Here is the input.
Amino acid sequence: MAFCINCGQMQADNTRFCRFCGGQQPGEQLIARLRMEAESIRYQMQQMQAQQAQQMQQANYSQQQGNDQARRW
Here is the structure.
């Protein structure tokens, strides 16, 4: 099921015009391209989150090392 891009009502897949508001719906080619773009963005976000998590781990490790050195003195 899909939703009208104009009024948001639920539509059957491959509907060209909304049965509620009459708004023209995007074609399958556009929808496929948008899905590919969304998947690409999702992948990039996952990569960024993984990098941020790695940076946080490195920062925590560095901080822990600094604390350990301070205790030795």
